Batch of 2 targets.
Target 1
Amino acid sequence: MTTLKRVDVHVEGLVQGVGFRPFVYSLANRLGLAGRVHNDVNGVHIEVEGAHAGVEEFLTALERDAPALSAIERVTVVSGEPAGHRGFTIATGDPAGPRRALVSADTATCDDCLRELADPADRRHRYPFINCAGCGPRFTVVRGAPGDRPMTTMAAFGMCDDCAREYHDPAGRRHLAQATCCPACGPRLRLRDPRGTELCGDPIACAAALLRAGHVVAVKGLGGYHLAVTASDERAAAALRGRKHREEKPFAVMAADLAQARLLAEIDDTAAALLTGRARPIVLLPRRDSAPTGASSGAPLGAPTGAATGVPTGGLAVAPSVAPGYRSLGLMLPYTALHHLLLAELAEPIVLTGGNVSDEPIAYEDDDALIRLGGIADAFLTHDRAIHQRTDDSVIRPLPGAITMLRRARGHAPEPLALRRPVPRPVLACGAELKSTFCLAQGRRAFVSQHLGDLENHDTLRTFVEGIDHYCGLFGIHPEVVAHDLHPGYLSTRHALEITGVEHVGVQHHHAHIAACLADNGDPGPVIGVAFDGLGHGTDGTLWGGEFLRADLAGYERLGHLAQIPMPGGAAAVRQPWRMTAAYLRDDHPGLDVARRNAGRWADAVHLAATGLDSPLTSSAGLLFDAVSALLGIRDKITYEGQAAIELEQRADPAETGAYPAALTTTSGPLIVEAGDLVRAAADDLTAGTDPGVIAGRFHNGVAAAITRTCVALRQATGLTAVALSGAVFQNALLLDRTVQRLRAAGFRVLKHVRVPPNDGGLSLGQAAIAAAQDHT
Amino acid sequence: MLSTDGFVVTPRFFPGGDIGSLAVHGTVNDLAMMGAVPVALSLAYIVEEGLPLDELRRVTTSVAEAARACDVRVVTGDTKVVGKGAADGLFVTTTGIGVRLPGAHVAAANGRPGDAVLLSGPIGLHGITILSTREGLGFESSLASDSRPLHRLAAAMITAGACGVHTLRDPTRGGLASALNELAAASGVGVELDEPAVPIPAQVAAACDLLGLDPLHVANEGCLVAFVDPARAEAVLAAMRARPEGACATRIGTVVAGHPGRVTMRTLVGSHRVIDMLVGEQLAGHP
Ligand SMILES: [Fe+3]
Ligand SMILES: [Mg+2]
Ligand SMILES: [Zn+2]
Ligand SMILES: [Zn+2]
């Protein structure tokens, strides 16, 4: 007779809504153990008893074999006296009380569901809303805590007997899967015209036929509406661009599978894993059909030569208007059964871009979508399962041996990031303005919201305010500390200061960037923080953005920065990069093309820069890239944030090894990097007839070299040997790669972003980490 | 009704006016925006030692002419001379008393959802003229400040509106954006502007483009914005257009119940932008 053993197991982490209880149930049954499992406010609680060896095996397998979607943070085991349970049961429902359990992110359709989808004998054959405990909609359909079916947008659908049986079967794949449904009881797909009238026929087949005929189809996805055209159809892509008022920003493309994706882009193992992973982000990849040619300037950049005539050059053709002037292509694979069915029907890739006009947030409510997209889409492939939280596609850029998150949204939010130390009091951090996110931190968890967009947009601002309430309710967080940027004009700052009864903490923008990088890496610092960014409010009345900080989470010191330069016309210099060229070069390089192109205003801009009128001083690195971009004739005026710098990177010759020098000067204060040296060297080369791609390469290398030299000087002064790289400029893969190489060669340990973006989308995490660290002291 | 205001402006003389006329119009307009007919003004100078006497004379003549044109009397005054550096040339303060117009029920808090938002004329002229004159940007040769009295226009509106004129405001410092934000906050309503309807003179647009300014944030001295009952809006507009200072009056938006305290603008491409108050100084030079 073996001795009986009994343990109480508490599992914390992402263990609810991911099939954890059914997993525990079948594990206990397989091992012949008795007891029960239930959800509680912190996660899952298990009482299990039986043979000693069985219980031991149970504890091992619990962590080893946990469901793919779960993320166990902590397992606590307490031994006790056997209670004489008979059999093993699952207790459903949730206890009252403050809730600290998690909500998982939306997850791509799993292989098991895809098999059923393709099986003519299965009752969910070709059913676009198939899902199970291991896949399907999550965060986007949860209306509040607890995230059981009544609190999701699936509450509108009563389960049929078959579905209810599966839902209640502890051994099945759909046990307690909140979105369980089938053609008999679940959401229904429809194809509508822009007036809302239902079009007859099979919606998928008809939508595919419309796409093939060159029409624009709005498709309701997990987090909002997309607009689709076939990716090879130049006329359709150009029409979509015109109707969306999206002049130049590249469109993303969805391919049916990895094999089809490989015809469009170079895909290595890292990229393949990202494309096929459960989050299914947009992955920026080197395109196969073409690259900017590099010779012409002025005309729209490098129209893909092969695709322009519809002839694929070594791959499938992507129409020129999809990503004009880009060497890379944003690619993703189907993440819902609806996408799988549509792409299979079409047998060719589609453009799948946000369902919005211009810079509006994407439409996610059906009536609103008809109104806002009615003038763009020729038909709507839509359904009656409501989306509760608008969530964009995530965007990731793979780098050799690493990735950079550029936009963190679907598939990632609202899953928390783990903090090194628990926060003393719950924190709300309100982020920045253009690539807005907020962050709520409690205990060791930081919940960074999905990317929300530009707060100056009224709809986005509303989503921001309501989203904070939604997250607070979902995770049971009542902020006592509210962190915000120092910029008084950011609408996020305004909102933060309107919250009463809390402690407000103003955080310097670039300190927050570096803190975000530290939190991203679980590193406490101190480090040499290199924040190369657009613009952020400094503490000296100027605008910062090319900063070298000695930083940890609690504080920072500004040890160096790019030489300050006037921005002629303030905000106008951001929209018109040629003004920064004028500010850097004044009249020192007569005969430059950039001065000729802007002849009507060049003298005015030089005058503003010289007198300082309406020309705030900045040390921005982003505007330095802008100045060079305009100098080389790549971009004089931008239509979206960062465009000039992004196109400069796309244009740079990666084979170029030369680097322009920049002097490092010291007076009594911080080290000054004479960034103007780089611009003047580029202008000299341009005047001498050097190819702009080569100049762009030498400029990138020059910036990397200047960063490294400055860090070496600061290492001598501070003894710090670790460097953290953050700020929007480090979205630039070429610069990041060159900088990391040089810093490592100089013996530095380098921290860069992985899970949150280096741009302002990561700022809220940094603000929260700083507010928490200051709260400790 | 009583209103007082201090005036400092560089330069003191500019196309379309000077510090003297500005001081009269400013206080007259403040009274007008309260629904009052201005009756009398007091005038106080603080003069920095060294100001040419001729300049002071010119300013005083200008005050007298402006007051006469407004049908108000300057009934009392004071002049103080302070040492060099203790003031910047000349500071002017005017205080005015006025009588409330019969039928006037205007207050910043009286805006209601559904009200039409009416604007009496093009925006940005004063601020851009001052800036361009001060900095020698060249726009001043073809622009002039809109500085002028608005009390007759306001009276005509109130008469035509028959209690339908809910709020009146002259969008001076901080421009139209700040004025509308203040009214929206005071009334607890939202405002939705229609971008193509907002009249911005080409020269103002060009100057704003050069300087990176938002015309909605540029100061005005001769236009007003009103929230008017939609049923009376056409009548009020007609009365405005019948007067020279309201010849270009137009409807630029609507008061809404949604987003109280917030001003938004439907842009040319159909997106919905938040129009915020001006934060800090509009123009910051560097040393
Ligand atoms: Fe930033
Ligand atoms: Mg006033
Ligand atoms: Zn599944
Ligand atoms: Zn069913």
Target 2
Amino acid sequence: MNILKNKPIQYILLGLIIAITPFIFNFQRGTLTMFNTVIIYSIVAIGFNILLGYAGQISLGHAAFMGLGAYISGYLTNMGIPFILSILIAGVIPMIIGLILGLVALRLEGHYLAIATLGFGVTIQQIFKEWTSFTNGYSGMRGQPASIFGFSFRSRESFFVLAIVILVLLSIFAYNLLKSKTGRALIAMRDSEHAAQAMGISLLKYKLIAFSISAFYAGIAGSLYIHLIRFIEPNQWGVELSLNLLAMVVIGGLASIEGSIIGAFFLTVIPDILKEIPMLGEIRNLSTILTGVSLILVIMFLPLGIARINIQIKEKLNNKNTKKTALNQ
Amino acid sequence: MNMFFQSIMAGLETGSLYALAALGLVLIFRTSDVINFAQGEMAMFSAFIAFKLFDGMKLPYPLAFLGAIVFAILFGFIVERVFIRPASKASLVSKMIITLGLIMIVGGLANALFGIDSHYFRKAIVADNMNIKGVVIQPNAIFIIAITFFIMAGLFYMINKTKMGIAIRATAQDENTAKMMGIPVSKVYSMSWIIATILGAIAGILIAPTTNVSTAMMGEVHLKSFIAAVLGGFGSFYGPVVGGLIIGVLDNLVGMYISLTWKTVIVYGLLILTLIIKPTGIFGKTHRKKV
């Protein structure tokens, strides 16, 4: 049974099980769309977690990368370029722009980086609004269904399989990357830039890696988004989405691949459930308020997020016990 | 040439509001080392309170204005007590994330309580426009610039001359030493949050006639006040004022002479450029990080 302890194999098995559930149970189309968006947000959240959780760099403009991926992929497929190629380009171009942001991050830290990325996000969103020949402005862009070698992922079930395959691939890539020299360098950089530099870790190289990889993930997710929903408009890619991504990662669990997926699940599914509850559903924006409250509660009381809730509770209990014994002695 | 003076005048008007908001940001940053990303949303909430007092309860305008300021005092106090103080030992990024969560809470609450419609809110001064050699000047603009300078003069007097101001500066410099000197540091924190919330509220109420009162009204002002603070530098109290005026004037000139649609992009480009070239801002001192 040792083979089951291998994380990548676990991801593949879990992915297989989840991918076939829509074929066994009969979900409504709306529910399936929701599950699909959970998968898409999981992809962005993993990328964002590499940046925030592992490398310790904050970004408040990540929605822009996702939007960029969506627009690029939508534009290219509308021109007749195959889906596989356009999803790759939709990942690579945000990645290059992420490199530029990484260069900016090299000179800035903490607050200043947050402000710069916030400004970056707003600028890119403004470009989405104004560059109408590319994005079609406020009227929005329509997308084609994804298709690979003539097979069209038009139904929600088949798209779910495609999204899961991509999620599993990217999770395994993230897992291997973070278990390698690069991952350890990122963590060292997060814990202390000076100590990391003293150990011979190039801040330039690893900041660029963190920003470009997370931008790549966001671009891929954006591309999937436009081929799933088949309509996007500039207002979607604003600060609200960036904040939601941040909340996903923090609530789910910083520096944890599973945590990113859990966070994406919670933040996509719970607002939908809340809408169904009779009295509460009437309150506008209840889910936003609750997201904000849970973001603050998690940061204050469970800094490692829901994914590692058991470890944190155990630790707290242990601390209490040691305190008690110390008092008794 | 008239057009040039006209846009400079308009720039000074909005610029002084950016400066007010930026001053609030810097005040909080200097004392409690947090950048309050929710400043804009909090200002929006206070502006809504003023609007509701004026439009819903039919109070006269000055009373509504005062009412909103009383609300802002309570609001700033509660936010500091409930959200910021328990996390005073947390890391910088955690504190930042708390204020980001506040954006969601305050923005969501405003949406739930006040709705998503945008409402017209009157100007502070309603009088005929003045015409000086072809340059049209609104009395309201003069009022805004004057009140901003009045508030700033008061604030600078307080910071430089009064005991409270010395306590604020001491806390900003070194919290532990300030504590040892008998400065009630937690009171200083409360005070700076209250003052910052009032500054935001005033900026919100005064900008309302141009943006209308809505939940999205402060988005632009809030971001511009960040740019103002970055441009002037978070290190000094007069930096953000100069930064705010520069941004206000520049925004209008770029909109006038270069391009109205790309003005936001150009101004944000300036922000990122400042951050790369001189992250500490025009008046900021370079500050060395200790290991």
